[in-house]
Amino acid sequence: MGKHISPEKKHTTILVAFDWYDHRVYRGIAQYCKEHHWHLSPYCFSERIIPVNWPGDGAITCFGDIQGESILGLDMPKVDVTLRDMPQQIPRVVVDNDLIGKKAASHFLKRGFKEFAYFSWGDVEINQIRKEAFINSLSDEGVTEDHIHIIHQPDECLIRDWKAHTEALIEQVKDLPRPLAVFTGQDNLGVTLVEACVDAGISVPEEIAVLGVDNIVFLCECSVVPLSSIDTHLEDLGYAAAEQLGRLLSGEIDNSEPVRTVPPGDVINRRSTESIAISHIPVANALKLMRSKFKDNLTLEDVYEHVGLSKRGLEKAFKKHLNDSPASVLRQIRLNYAKKCLTQSDIKIEAIALECGYSNSSNLSHAFNREIGIPPLEYRNRYRSPLFSSRNSN
């Protein structure tokens, strides 16, 4: 249960012991520490060293090969942010990897792809969870096994030889059907695949669309073809891990607490998945217009005129190729953007409505109630990031 904190101590002191660094996780932890007047120890920031007899109250850890022994030796309450096998039972907080796989499948299915592939590290547990969720989601939507392909990570001995490594990748990719939608287990793999394809003369995204995970901006935006990626809300992960440690310290939970999952955000769209795998050109053009101009008071009449089809003609084409209507697709594009604004910003609802292409907040509220079942403000209060939960924007 929780560790006793002596009355003379002014602050709870915690340690962050990670094998890797991402400023977003640390920022989430720091936000919770600031709100609860915790002291964050500087150990492990410059060097991966935990002093003997360090007088801390608790630790947030990322169990792995480098820090593993030190983490196991910490005789204090701990919360870990991995799913790696660990010879101690402690609370875990992780991103919802099942939902990540489902989001990837949905992203590609909405773009009309019929051929899919998954590329990941075979020995990374979260990659395999994402893989299974991706494949199962596709199967649930009627995609058969012969349209789902696995791209295997080349032999470990080739990793340090760029030419041999990329040739081994392309050897697997070159004969797969096109257009192909590839979901990679993490961003670095997505960027590697994009670069390999471009070097081999394979067009991204027209022939092969690539989606990563974690939205590491400097990787995604500096790729030879900017990489689309699922935002894993790592600030929320850090905040939730600190929150769980607070519950452990107070005795509210113990080391048998089940794994807590943090929902990921949306796909951050970049060039690598911009293509739409639809043979019907007017439908593809209509979707492209909707996604690029939905903020500009776009009407369905504008869409019909742009693609050169009547209302009835485009509705029939959407039904055939997307199993949906133009009105529903445009509404979902606007609502998805509104949901992102509501949960990841303090922008007032009236301003969000105008930003999404609605004439006023009442129209946005009507769409929310009809499609989601709750009004925008309730959606914000229920699903917003913990980093915004203490603020009132409306």
UniProtKB/TrEMBL annotation:
Keyword flag Transcription regulation: yes
Alphabetical list of InterPro entries matching this protein: Homeodomain-like_sf, HTH_AraC, HTH_AraC-typ_CS, LacI/GalR-like_sensor, Peripla_BP_I
Transmembrane intervals: none
An example Gene Ontology molecular-function term: transcription cis-regulatory region binding
Keywords: DNA-binding, Transcription, Transcription regulation
PANTHER family linked: LACI-RELATED TRANSCRIPTIONAL REPRESSOR (PTHR30146), XYLOSE OPERON REGULATORY PROTEIN (PTHR30146:SF24)
Protein name: XylR family transcriptional regulator
Taxonomic source organism: Oceaniferula spumae
